[in-house]
Design a protein that fits this description.
CATH class: Alpha Beta
CATH architecture: Alpha-Beta Barrel
Low-confidence stretches: 1-31
Structural class: alpha/beta
Shape: globular
Order of helices and strands: EEHEHEHEHHEEEHEEEHHHEHEHEH
Strand content: 15-25%
CATH topology: TIM Barrel
Mean pLDDT: 86
Length: 366
């Protein structure tokens, strides 16, 4: 997998240099060695106690690092604390894990994002990953007087991402004149070292999202259907893909479902909250998942939608024995997915259980 995922500059760019130091690997490169990257998710500040939240962030980040996760997703929306502040805490209390910072164009100029990346690299000698989001909750956007339609937000996200890529990838000034952004001989200082170039991801559950990920050369992250129902779609030029999914795995199927039912009991209030949230969202993936039954692939499938339907999380779950979950994940790998973003871990042991699943997949591929 390219690291970082980057793409050639759009024709709207001019760069005051003959060379841009992209680290790029052709999309048609097929290696026998399949590399899978696993990310966890940081706990949200929504509903959290301010006196204990930082300790929770540090705990989850350290659990994730011990479990061998490549990085940890840090959410961003109007109702939670700034993801850059949370990411700085993660950097200060871990050694290697990469914060995967959710980036919303409505919040800050692309230059400010690139400046944060190179500043963290300079101060901590650490890499930052970026989860580029167009914004799916209309009320959040309207509060900022942003009434850009859904697909147009992805057009804007393309320009936004390309500016960040260009700034991080060259020591020279860049110029661009697009529909949404215009920069003139803009230069990033201090220069970002090549080994600390950011890794980019983007929601790829809608056609507009997939097109934007293809144009920018980043990893498209999907919210998957059951592996038996999902189909491997061909998207020429798409560099790489991944999925966001929760995992509850144990030695036996019965034990896993007992844990799942205890953690996510039926919740009518949660279902109502989810219904109301749907009304303020024009996210394609949100609506697609909401149409899924609780067990859309039948009682024998590990695929489970209750945590999503009761507003406890924003992704499907896989529940079952290590072997069952490893088969489901292996099917996603066969579809071409190489990045897996897991849900917020309730404890370190839950990450260890998930790690057992990925170890089975790794051993099976040898």
């Amino acid at each position: 997998m390219p690291d970082p995922q980057t793409a050639p500059l759009d024709s709207r760019f001019t760069v005051d240099a003959n060379k841009i130091d992209w680290v790029h690997e052709p999309a048609n490169d097929r290696r026998q060695d399949i590399k899978i990257e696993v990310f966890s998710t940081c706990c949200s500040s929504k509903g959290a106690d301010s006196e204990t939240y930082l300790e929770q962030v540090i705990e989850v980040a350290r659990w994730s690092e011990r479990a061998g996760c490549r990085g940890i997703l840090v959410y961003a929306d109007n109702g939670i604390v700034d993801p850059w502040s949370v990411s700085q805490v993660i950097l200060e209390h871990t050694e290697q894990i990469c914060p995967l910072v959710a980036i919303q164009p409505a919040y800050m100029h692309p230059y400010a994002v690139a400046k944060m990346i190179t500043s963290f690299a300079f101060l901590y000698q650490r890499k930052i990953c970026l989860n580029m989001i167009a914004g799916g909750f209309r009320n959040d956007l309207f509060a900022l007087d942003d009434q850009t339609p859904h697909d147009d937000r992805y057009d804007r996200l393309v320009e936004y991402t390309q500016i960040i890529q260009a700034l991080c990838g060259t020591s020279s000034g860049i110029s661009m004149e697009g529909k949404y952004y215009r920069v003139q001989n803009l230069k990033l200082t201090p220069q970002l070292p090549s080994h600390l170039q950011p890794q980019f991801m983007m929601s790829g559950s809608s056609f507009a999202g997939l097109a934007a990920a293809t144009t920018t050369g980043v990893t498209a992250i999907k919210y998957p259907k059951p592996a038996t129902d999902d189909v491997e779609e061909s998207h020429p030029g798409l560099t790489s893909t991944g999925v966001r999914v929760g995992i509850i795995a144990r030695q036996t199927k019965e034990e896993a479902w007992k844990v799942a039912e205890d953690r996510f009991p039926e919740d009518r209030k949660g279902r109502l909250t989810h219904f109301l949230a749907m009304k303020t969202s024009d996210s394609h993936w949100h609506h697609q998942l909401s149409k899924q039954k609780e067990k859309p692939d039948g009682e024998n499938s590990p695929y489970w939608m209750r945590p999503f339907h009761t507003y406890k999380t924003f992704c499907p779950y896989l529940v079952g024995s290590y072997e069952e979950i490893s088969r489901e994940i292996s099917d996603y790998v066969r579809m071409g997915h190489r990045t897996f973003i897991l849900d917020i871990p309730p404890c370190q042991q839950e990450l260890e259980h998930a790690n057992s699943v990925f170890k089975l997949i790794s051993n099976a591929s040898k």
